[in-house]
Amino acid sequence: MAAPPPHLERLAEVHDVPVGSMRTAFVVLRSLRHALDRNGGGYYDLVLGDASARIPGKVWGDERAYGELAGGPAGEGAVVKVMFSVGMYRDALQLTVKRLRVLDESDEWNPVSVWGEGWDLVEGLRCKTLVFDIETVPAVDLETAPESVTKAVHRAADRYDGDTSKVMGLSPFYGKVVSIAVGDGEDPDGPVTALVVAPPGREDDAYPEWIRPMTEAQLLRSFWHLADSAEVVVSFNGRGFDVPFVQTRSLIHGVPARVDLMSSPFALRPHLDLYRLLAPNRGNPASASLDVICWSLGIESPKGEMDGSLVAPTYARGDIEMIATYNVGDVRATRSVYRHLREHLLPFRKDW
């Protein structure tokens, strides 16, 4: 009986494996598409991934893995064990999968190696259409900051009637993320969860199930986990504010920004910015705010007594629940706008 092929602990190690060699690995089925070749034979295009890499692969109709996929429980997002041969196609690495099965209790695998550090913080929150919104507050004490930094903040504050708090809250260099609300865009009545940074002194408090307290670094890592596992990320003015802020804060914390949500500004995937879709070239975002869009579409507005200008003082007095409620309301409204566009606009776009 032949010995089993060597096992890769990290998929990225396949780059050092000679072409034609056999290996096994624990991976996530990032994408899975069935197609027919010119002779009518079936095959699968897929992308295998773990925390270290994503590699394209093929399952040909004459491989045992083809039947295992066609008749088995494995689908997109499933963690599986694969046996594959290493090959090249058009000067790029491609894996030919020979065997494939969903993991069971007998498999000794490390979720961190597959999903990445912090995977447990978003357990139960992964979805194909991730709707999100962030709330930010100042994070820099100007009295202890270098003089050059203080001067830069005051110069920028001249545009806001000297309001240094607003400047810092809107800049990832002087501010921080204290809440990211996330929800499933395909579930109109589904729960929305707020990942929050507890105010000083409230780190050990008990919070309701829909609020998950953590550090800012953990919050950022959680966001990228969710964005990485989603097919599309939906925001309102996310290209103009949320994503650049989260991306820069991630760089400051040394958290990998695992998905490119900023390139191809007019693309609808992987980042669908509803503001860009509904109000291109409108200038001031306030003229087509989420509140205005909801009103025009007959959707309940998320705005109440709370607004963005009150987030910083609300956080300063320790009321993270109010911020989370406000944040969740924006995600519910954004989800409703997305679902309206998904029915009346997106199906007729060739790029969707």
UniProtKB/TrEMBL annotation:
**SUPFAM superfamilies tied to this protein:** Ribonuclease H-like
Q: Which keywords annotate this record?
A: Exonuclease, Hydrolase, Nuclease
Q: Which Pfam families match?
A: DNA_pol_B_exo2
Is Cell cycle there in the keyword field? no
Q: Which GO terms describe its molecular function?
A: exonuclease activity; nucleic acid binding
- Give residue ranges for domain Predicted 3'-5' exonuclease PolB-like: 215-340
Q: What is this protein called?
A: 3'-5' exonuclease
| Source organism of the structure | Plesiocystis pacifica SIR-1
